[in-house]
């Protein structure tokens, strides 16, 4: 069921509508993505994640032995100083020097040295011979497609450079796409605005931690990776005004939802500066503008203080994303898991396409 390529047109995927409160006898509807317009109301606030995916996958070799490496940039500590996922890890000992290859497979001037290894097996690299490795990625990097998308023909990657990116992408920083946003075309966004729906943006740079499976025996033992987010004053004002007027907040994607719930204001702090990520949580009303980092892990039972409607893709089993949508399907209850598994079983029967390039689900 895993989609290996996007729909022929961005906004022509399928859309499963899941009603948390059944409408008559129909809890699930099967529609096309442009039908989203029928479920929007004047005054709704549609929030999208505008983070841009960087060409974060690099190819290189050991300067001394010639052994080949595949490197995925994970998090920037400072200019030319990054944590990365590197394969095969056993060859990347401390002090290993790596020379990178360009899109044609030829050696480039850019090099890096392995400085350390953490408990997760990630490597700390320092890059040289470039003012900033981010500026070199267009020449050296590849689209960081998930491992479940196979690309036997490298020429397909040119299409991925366009389609594994939202049409509204702005600040670079994500190593995976905020995939629910991939369904939107510029023309569909214009139609949405014509309905007097307020469209606004935030930025959460997507890391691999969002997609990491839960391997611990208890949910409390699972550690989410930090992700950086930024919410502008304009977006915060739009959301907070809508909440006060009982208008709906529609989050496009789990990354948008996580950013909004992480930035939920603590009423005891008033409208002061952004709270530290460990004090944000989901308490209070409205959101605080500003930058922050979050490890928020949303799973049943969980309340949601900001988001009223969620548009999302279909996710992998045992992932924190399935747990998040299960929590959203039945706030403050544990029954959401059964509802989501019911919806997923229906999606499989109807041959929906799953994961990054797949179809979408609207939870009302």
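^ structure tokens above, recovered residues below v
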């Amino acid at each position: 069921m895993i989609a290996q390529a996007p729909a022929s047109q961005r906004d022509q995927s399928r859309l499963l509508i899941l009603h948390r409160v059944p409408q008559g006898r129909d809890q699930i509807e099967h529609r096309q993505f442009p039908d989203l317009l029928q479920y929007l109301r004047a005054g709704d606030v549609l929030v999208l994640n505008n983070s841009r995916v960087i060409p974060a996958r690099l190819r290189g070799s050991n300067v001394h032995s010639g052994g080949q490496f595949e490197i995925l940039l994970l998090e920037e500590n400072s200019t030319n100083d990054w944590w990365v996922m590197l394969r095969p890890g056993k060859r990347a000992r401390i002090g290993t020097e790596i020379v990178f290859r360009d899109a044609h497979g030829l050696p480039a001037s850019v090099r890096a040295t392995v400085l350390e290894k953490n408990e997760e097996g990630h490597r700390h690299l320092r890059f040289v011979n470039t003012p900033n490795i981010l500026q070199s990625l267009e020449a050296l990097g590849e689209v960081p497609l998930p491992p479940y998308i196979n690309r036997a023909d490298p020429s397909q990657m040119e299409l991925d450079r366009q389609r594994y990116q939202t049409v509204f992408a702005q600040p670079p920083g994500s190593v995976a796409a905020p995939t629910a946003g991939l369904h939107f075309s510029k023309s569909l966004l214009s139609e949405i605005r014509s309905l007097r729906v307020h469209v606004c943006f935030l930025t959460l740079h997507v890391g691999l931690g969002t997609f990491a499976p839960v391997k611990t025996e208890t949910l409390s033992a699972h550690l989410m990776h930090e992700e950086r987010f930024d919410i502008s004053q304009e977006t915060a004002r739009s959301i907070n005004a809508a909440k006060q007027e009982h208008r709906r907040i529609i989050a496009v994607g789990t990354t948008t939802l996580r950013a909004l719930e992480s930035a939920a204001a603590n009423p005891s702090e008033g409208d002061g500066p952004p709270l530290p990520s460990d004090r944000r949580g989901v308490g209070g009303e409205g959101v605080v503008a500003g930058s922050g980092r979050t490890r928020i892990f949303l799973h049943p039972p969980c309340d949601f203080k900001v988001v009223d409607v969620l548009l999302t893709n279909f996710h992998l089993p045992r992932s924190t994303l399935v747990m998040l949508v299960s929590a959203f399907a039945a706030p403050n209850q544990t029954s959401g898991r059964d509802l989501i598994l019911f919806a997923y079983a229906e999606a499989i029967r109807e041959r929906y396409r799953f994961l990054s390039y797949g179809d979408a689900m609207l939870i009302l």
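The longest strand covers residues 68-78.
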